[in-house]
Amino acid sequence: MGKILVLYYSKSGNTKKMAHLVADGAVEISGIEVRLKAINEADREDVLWCDGLALGSPTHLGTVAYEMKKFWEDKITDWQKLDGKIGCAFSSQGGWGGGGELTCLSLLTILMNFGFLVFGVTDYAGYQFTAHYGTTQAGEPREEKQKEACRRLGKRLAEWIAVCVDGRKELHPLCGNYKRNPWD
Ligand SMILES: Cc1cc2nc3c(=O)[nH]c(=O)nc-3n(C[C@H](O)[C@H](O)[C@H](O)COP(=O)(O)O)c2cc1C
């Protein structure tokens, strides 16, 4: 059974709300075990445990919050034990264009440093609303398309884990039978 960790830092609660929605999306795929943890509740065993990891941080000064970077610098010393796990990213920023995608790329860079395979989402969760480098929000997710972008990230991670870890090839996104775009 594939295992997913949704791991986040949130100073004022917005990234936490995203994390819950990402986890909701992951459990849409049956047979996948999902853990949701803030970094102050998590340790290296959680990271070693998972097959897939969705990593979330608020955008601070256009990049990842130092608390998140500290977690990886101080607690995770497991190079050559994490290779091949699958990772993705999400971030809440103060406003659109505030650097959320840069933060996602920084989160993905951290994961790549440990040998994770990282991905983006090509789907559109709503009109002109996608998550190519991970899911970003301005503040908390309020509109349905914002919530769906979070759920879709978690669901896509679960699909990749089902395909790549559990060998459930029918769950490949290109075989999916749900609407990937509003115009489908
Ligand atoms: C130290 C600090 C730096 C921030 N830098 C940015 C920034 O560069 N761009 C931006 O859009 N918002 C910035 N913000 C706003 C947060 O990204 C935003 O409020 C976010 O929703 C907070 O998420 P959280 O509730 O999970 O902590 C910053 C906030 C703090 C506290």
Mean pLDDT: 97
- Encode the helix/strand succession as letters: EHEHEEHEHEEEEH
What portion of the residues fall into strands of 2 or more residues?
25-35%
CATH homologous superfamily classification: Flavodoxin domain
Distance between the termini: 31 Å
Annotated CATH topology = Rossmann fold
Number of domains: 1
Low-pLDDT stretches are: none
Task: Identify the CATH architecture.
Answer: 3-Layer(aba) Sandwich
- The tally of helices reads 5
Give the total of beta strands. Answer: 9
- Ligand kinds: flavin mononucleotide
Helix content percent band: 25-40%
Structural class: alpha/beta
User: Mind summarizing the main beta sheet?
Assistant: 7 strands, mixed
C-alpha-based Rg, rounded? 15 Å
Oligomer: single chain
Q: What CATH first level would be assigned?
A: Alpha Beta
Tell me, briefly, the overall form: globular
Describe the structure concisely for a colleague.
Helix content is 35%, strand content 26%.
Describe the structure.
The chain has 5 helices and 9 strands. It is of the alpha/beta class. It has a single domain, classed as Flavodoxin domain (Rossmann fold). Strands 1, 2, 3, 4, 5, 6 and 9 form a 7-stranded mixed sheet that branches. Strands 7-8 form a two-stranded antiparallel sheet. Strand 7 and strand 8 form a beta hairpin. Helix 1 packs across helix 5. The radius of gyration is 15 Å and the shape is globular. The site of flavin mononucleotide has 19 residues, from helix 1, strand 3 and strand 5.
